[in-house]
Amino acid sequence: MDSVYFICEDVLVALEGLPSASVDVVVTSPPYNLGADYGPGCDDSRSLEEYLSWLNHVFAELGRVLKPEGAFFLNAGWSPKEPWLSRDIAEEAATHFTLQNRIAWVKSIALGDEPCRGHVKPINSVRFLNRQWEEIYHFTKTGEIRIERLAVGVPYADPTNLERGTRGKNGNLRCRGDVLFAPYETVSEDKGHPCPFPVQLAEYCLKLHGVRDDLLALDPFAGIGSTGVAARNLGVRAILIDNNEGYIRIARRRCGILGNDNES
């Protein structure tokens, strides 16, 4: 298999075709069921019961294809009209996995009186604040899987910290923590998708799980292929699934790959 393999097919059909315990890490952001226009093949306005039931079937298949020591990074959003949606989605996943970490994905932030850094889709409202963060749920099968915390580590603000206890044993790096700043990208072709997933965020997830030569990543809701781009940047393999041929074409271009896809 080439480094990134594309499957243009219904997600459940595609997942059923993958071998059990064959995937190391899943990084994905499913449609939020908030009425976004994803184009042909995606109904983003189902009843909540139908939507969650469908996701539960997807999560069950992800549990089957994921290795026992694997990880599942799930981005889930919400809206002022559906403030509990992120939690509802995570609870469906929790019927098949164990929640190991909750990560705040910060898209835009203002420090003091400085202008905001990053990008958001503003809300025109007198009642609600702009939504500048979403959650990444880090699921594993046991809740006891080792992560590579320093793979996305940051330097100590005060170098004297290195002289305290054993803090300097890893050089000038400390755990970044459970808040990741990854602004939306402003690449023009990303406009072909209503909710582009930053490559930087996908890279964080892959690095946290641990990058190695034989790693196989999976994104069952690939969109325009950010997880695939992240995998290519890190030198690991990935399978991207999406039922929208237009998104698959953009994903292939972004990954620099012209063929090897199943677009039946």
Question: What is the structure about, briefly put?
Answer:
With 264 residues, the protein is an alpha/beta fold. The chain is built from 6 helices and 10 strands, in the order βαβαβαβββββαβαβα.
Write the layout of secondary structure elements.
Elements: E1 4-8, H1 11-16, E2 23-28, H2 48-65, E3 66-76, H3 85-93, E4 98-106, E5 108-109, E6 117-118, E7 133-140, E8 179-181, H4 199-209, E9 216-219, H5 226-234, E10 237-242, H6 245-255
CATH topology: Rossmann fold
Strand content: 15-25%
Shape: globular
The CATH level-2 architecture is identified as: 3-Layer(aba) Sandwich
- Overall number of structural domains: 1
* Structural class computed from helices and strand pairing: alpha/beta
Give the % helix.
10-25%
Secondary structure tally, helices: 6
Sheet having the most strands: 8 strands, mixed
User: What is the first-to-last residue Cα distance?
Assistant: 18 Å
Strand order of the largest sheet: 1-10-9-2-3-7-4-8
Total strands: the figure is 10
- Per CATH, the superfamily is Vaccinia Virus protein VP39
Order of H and E elements: EHEHEHEEEEEHEHEH
Which residue ranges are poorly predicted, with pLDDT under 50 across at least 5 consecutive positions?
none
What CATH first level would be assigned?
Alpha Beta
- The pLDDT mean sits at 88
Describe it.
There is one protein chain. The protein has 264 residues and is an alpha/beta fold. It has one domain: Rossmann fold. The chain contains six helices and ten strands. Helix 5 links the parallel strand 9 and strand 10 (237-242). Helix 2 (48-65) packs parallel to helix 3 (85-93) and helix 4 (199-209) packs across helix 5 (226-234). The two termini are 18 Å apart. The model has no long low-confidence stretch (mean pLDDT 88).
